[in-house]
Write a structure and sequence with these properties.
2 domains; alpha+beta; 5 helices; Arc Repressor Mutant, subunit A; two-stranded antiparallel sheet; single chain
Length: 145
């Protein structure tokens, strides 16, 4: 899937790659999303990968497409570490997803659902064909009786 280049209001251009696209669509569909829930669905390696992606590409200090709820986590270092608890699309982020809907790469769970729906549609057609054949055979049997 191709990257989408997005020019933020402040003029900087950001590359929205496939995993970032998955994240945007996931948050768009689910509303506010906790990082631990997002990781597997978007195909990220871990929460840290999602966190750094938001910070460097999608969050308030970057493209401003995702807004985050942050908290402090006490660490063994000299200062506390700030972590992202959850994320939601900004108004600009929602408009971006709506504008690029056909071009965006879907999260893993949606792609898998699409495959399952396609398979079920094929099975449904096969069942309809079998029902038609049974009806035809029953009609012939009645004629023969």
């Amino acid at each position: 899937m191709a990257s989408i280049f997005y020019e933020a209001q402040h003029g900087e251009v950001y590359q929205i790659d496939e995993v970032s696209q998955h994240l945007l669509v996931y948050v768009y569909l689910h509303g506010e999303a906790k990082l631990e829930d997002v990781v597997e669905s978007i195909g990220a390696q871990n929460e840290h990968a999602v966190h750094s992606r938001i910070e460097s590409q999608l969050g308030g200090s970057a493209a401003q497409l995702i807004d985050t709820e942050r908290g402090m986590q006490q660490t063994f270092g000299e200062r506390p570490d700030y972590i992202i608890h959850s994320s939601a699309l900004t108004e600009t982020g929602a408009k971006f997803v709506e504008k690029h809907r056909n071009e965006l790469s879907m999260p893993v769970e949606i792609a898998e659902l699409a495959k399952r729906v396609a398979a079920l549609q094929i099975e449904d057609r096969l069942v309809d064909d079998l029902i038609d054949r049974i009806d035809t055979l029953e009609g012939r049997i009645e004629e023969l009786e």
